[in-house]
Amino acid sequence: MTTKAFHPTDRLIVALDFPSAAPARVFLKQLDSACRWLKVGMELYYAEGNAFVEELRGLGYEVFLDLKLHDIPNTVAGAVRSTTNAGASLLTLHATGGSVMMAAAVEAASVPGAPRLLAVTVLTSMDAAQLSGIGIASSPADQVLRLARLAWSTGIRGMVCSAEEVALLREVLGDEAELVIPGIRPAGAAIGDQSRIATPAEAIRRGASRLVVGRPITQAPDPKSAALAILDEIATSI
């Protein structure tokens, strides 16, 4: 799989950062099928479970299940198996869980219908000072590369990183890597709680496969128009 094969509508993932299904359904009516991919994170998944993922699939959406799994290997493998039946296309786990945990997840995801795994490297909300606070002396870029290589060694071919590191990972891992980039903010949008951000065009030019966008779309007066504007920006960057 190479980034060149991705259509603009396959490159944008809209984050359903809502506390429950009801406001998410209202938003989806406003979005009016402008996008193909949706992200379901921990807050929404813990409230609604696999049933809502199945509902989204029934509406024709592809689902990125962003659970950031991080536990002992057996527990993570079980979680991968539990989510497989819901039909999500992508599922995240933390690379900091280590190679044994990731290898167990890869084995659990080897069955037909299982989601593709994405290893989360360093959260886009973290900078060098925050890494230092948890005992990591490396720069964010060095830590991202270290964890991406570890995940790659277990068979995981998708990574989550910030736009600041995507060019490095694309160079090191090549076209096979699926690089999913959160922290995307159109020019002029509020930064929010993100530290390492980029515009859609910048991230695509640096080698991103897919972009995750939340508040600039979900909190826009016209979510459909906001999404279409980002799709246009992506289209002019590939």
TrEMBL record:
According to the UniProt record, what class of enzyme is this? Answer: lyase
* Amino-acid positions noted as binding substrate in the UniProt annotation, renumbered to this chain: 17, 39, 66-75, 124, 185, 194, 214-215
Give the catalysed reaction(s), semicolon-separated.
orotidine 5'-phosphate + H(+) = UMP + CO2
- The UniProt record lists the Orotidine 5'-phosphate decarboxylase domain at 11-230
Q: Which UniProt keywords apply?
A: Decarboxylase, Lyase, Pyrimidine biosynthesis
The molecular function terms in GO held by this entry are:
orotidine-5'-phosphate decarboxylase activity
Please name the CDD domains in this protein's record: OMP_decarboxylase_like
Quote the cellular component terms of the Gene Ontology held in the record. cytosol
Q: Where is the active site?
A: D66 (for ompdecase activity), K68 (for ompdecase activity), K68 (proton donor), D71 (for ompdecase activity)
Q: What SMART domains does the annotation carry?
A: OMPdecase
List, alphabetically, the Pfam families matched: OMPdecase (PF00215)
One of the protein's GO biological processes: 'de novo' pyrimidine nucleobase biosynthetic process
InterPro entries, alphabetically? Answer: Aldolase_TIM (IPR013785), OMPdecase (IPR014732), OMPdecase_AS (IPR018089), OMPdecase_bac (IPR047596), OMPdeCOase_dom (IPR001754), RibuloseP-bd_barrel (IPR011060)
What pathway does this protein act in?
Pyrimidine metabolism; UMP biosynthesis via de novo pathway; UMP from orotate: step 2/2
The Enzyme Commission number assigned here is 4.1.1.23
> NCBIfam families from the entry?
PRK00230.1, pyrF
Q: How does it assemble?
A: Homodimer.
Q: Which family does it belong to?
A: Belongs to the OMP decarboxylase family. Type 1 subfamily.
Q: PANTHER family this protein is in? A: OROTIDINE 5'-PHOSPHATE DECARBOXYLASE (PTHR32119:SF2)
Please explain the role this protein plays, according to its UniProt record. Answer: Catalyzes the decarboxylation of orotidine 5'-monophosphate (OMP) to uridine 5'-monophosphate (UMP).
- Its recorded name reads Orotidine 5'-phosphate decarboxylase
Q: Native species of this protein?
A: Granulicella arctica
Taxonomic path:
Bacteria, Pseudomonadati, Acidobacteriota, Terriglobia, Terriglobales
Q: Which gene encodes it?
A: pyrF
